[in-house]
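Bit of a strange request maybe. I'm writing a small parser for structure token strings and I need a real example to test against, not something I typed by hand. Could someone generate the tokens for this chain?
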Amino acid sequence: MWRGSLFFIVLLTCQWACESGENERKGTISALHLDPLLFDRMKESDQVNVVRRHLSLYAHRALDPTAEIAFDERFPDWRQRLPSDLLLQMDTTIYHISCGRLSYLLRDVYRELGFQSATYNFGIEHTPFTHELTLVELSDGLVSVQDAHYNSALFEGDSLGDFFQFLQAVASGGTHDFYFINDTSWANLYLPETYLDTGYEICNPAYVSGPLQPTLNASWYRRDYMVNLQVNLQDSCYGFMTNLNMQRTDGLDFEDLFLTRISSISGYPEWEQRVDTILASAQSD
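Reply from user aminoacidic:
Good idea to test on real output. This should exercise your parser:
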């Protein structure tokens, strides 16, 4: 009798956990403004792409990212919150989010949807020229590179490219089969009221568009911000790679930065070991 009762309790607990997990999964899909039924009919490769595209709509920037609208100031408990709950609040909040925080959020969304996912932090350490994006594994073992901050993904031909094969190609000096797609979405660039009379538009970047508009917070205004890898990297005013190569003479490409891993690939020591093996071989050549 006792064993039968215990089995029944365990069965109910498992059923509740499964239903709770599925409800949270559907909640996350809905919070991204996607239809759960249509999403479940997609191929995995399409799922990870569409999630990244929709999350890039949350890639808001601020002219002064250290101000009170910094992401950690607005959402100090973001690490403990469910993605669906956090996304719903982000819909109605003014904030600046860095590539690192957005890569973590994309990672958490993928995990909530049942994927194995981690982040990859790379670049020139202790300089502004670092970047962090998201790795997500599909059921066939391919590890896709997805970047919500620049709204891009790694491709090889017409299909998603594998992160480790790409890294090996970069280490070997040839990446002609790999490329990052240039999807485009629009987020917000927030400007504090105090900046309006300081001539902040000394150079007008291509990724900022539209008139200055008020927000619900009287201290902040906004303009449209284009989230697009090529434009964000190569813009003649403030492009990430433009500014980097103004300070160097070796003409680095964005792909070259992948050869310097900055932080651990948390939770995936086997991925980190594979990366370090590839990077070590590149340094020995």
